[in-house]
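User: quick one, fold this
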Amino acid sequence: MHLPLLTGLSIIFSPIHIAFLEMIIDPVCSLVFEAEKEEKDIMSRRPRAVTSHLFTSGLVLWSLLQGVLAFAAVAVLYLLALRRGMPAEDVRALTFVSLVLANLGLVLGNRSFDSSVRGALRWDNHALWRVSAVAGVLLGTALAWARDLFRFGPLHADDLAVAFGIAVGLVVVLEILKGFWRGWLTA
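Assistant:
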């Protein structure tokens, strides 16, 4: 997370945290999205023009917006936790869990541009559930047994509820915005 570098606060994540994030984000991108089945109306859509760009400006802006919103949500949580006087290890654990859950939320939100998350959850994608389960087990292991390695403090039920709330809130906001943004995504 870049916030400590921008604000002069102490660096919260070390290389092990970044490596752990890569262990979750890379499989999600490569396994989950590749295993995603095509949408039912795919053959009734107009084909993309041969001269069109693979990444439209709308899609690039949408990606940036998602990143900014996820960053803002986790950054606000991080700053509030510091302001409330939480120990650095607890702040690190809370911020890290929130970041992992926010990334999984982004995966859910990006399964389809034309369908809602609720609709997309009904689609069969075993890779999504397997990768999410593995991510949950790894995250639980890091929080429960590898706390010293990750320099995590203990998280309580209310901390985990806040982290889940951040992810759910992010997905809800993006779903609302997706309705307005939908025309730009393919234009």
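User: anything notable?
Assistant: Residues 157-186 form the longest helix (30 residues).
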